Amino acid sequence: AQSVTQLGSHVSVSEGALVLLRCNYSSSVPPYLFWYVQYPNQGLQLLLKYTSAATLVKGINGFEAEFKKSETSFHLTKPSAHMSDAAEYFCAVTEGDSWGKLQFGAGTQVVVTP
Amino acid sequence: EAQVTQNPRYLITVTGKKLTVTCSQNMNHEYMSWYRQDPGLGLRQIYYSMNVEVTDKGDVPEGYKVSRKEKRNFPLILESPSPNQTSLYFCASRSQGLGYEQYFGPGTRLTVT
Questions:
Q1: Closest to A100 measured CA to CA, from A26, A53, A31
Q2: Quick one: pLDDT at residue A96?
Q3: C-alpha span between B103 and A96 (Å, rounded)
Q4: d(CA A89, CA A81)
């Protein structure tokens, strides 16, 4: 069975500082991994996804994530936070079949301070 | 524009009064799903559908029904809503196949008093 753990329900970063959101997964088969962002009063938008190609994945808005199989991790980073990055971020995993169920983490709320 | 739409966006109702939340997608996706979002719990799957007339339970199906009579529509039905179904609901769709991401609707905020 698959599961996702996001470390830290709330993260506060200064504008211009590194954003690091942690995600660890468990999966019995090679996983597909996703990061979604949810801005206030909106639905979820895909930031990036890992589908067994390059382990370093680049997404939208300057975000990237690295798949580390040995650590079962898929942490999300952005070198320099912007005020517009304030949102909730969700890590999700699905196992490798055509109808793979998407399992979400509990989410991390990011606050960006001036 | 490719999108998933949901209606209504906001709904306040009373215990026991049947309601339906509609969901429609224009991307010809086979797979559709309903989630509820609650603070500290992330998104939990309620029901999903792999194609027309094919539906199955997710993690939290109690108190909900769905139907898939057309490929583009996947309504969520609460026949007798209760206060513990107060939540933010999302519909999503995706193509069949490995690694395809889900596209989410804007959400429906439901309050049951």
A1: A31
A2: 57
A3: 18
A4: 14
Determine the distance in angstroms separating the CA of B30 from the nearest CA of chain A, rounded to an integer: 10
Residue B35 CB contacts under 8 Å (≥ 6 apart), including other chains? A104, B43, B44, B45, B46, B58, B89, B90, B91, B92
Phi-psi region of B27 (alpha: psi -120 to 50; beta: other; left: phi over 0): alpha
The SS3 of residue A49 is strand
Contact list, A34 vs chain B (CB under 8 Å): 101
The radius of gyration of chain B from alpha carbons, rounded to an integer in Å, stands at 13
Task: Say if residue A84's pLDDT is above 70.
Answer: yes
> Do B31 and A99 make contact, defined as CB atoms within 8 angstroms?
yes
Nearest to A105 among B42, B45, B101 (CB): B42
Give residue-wise pLDDT tens across range B59-113: 999 999 999 999 999 999 999 999 999 999 999 999 877 678 889 999 999 999 9
C-alpha separations of B45 from A101, B9, B32 in Å: 9, 19, 11
Distance CA A20, CA B82 (A): 39
**In whole angstroms, what is the distance from residue B101 CA to residue A48 CA?**
9
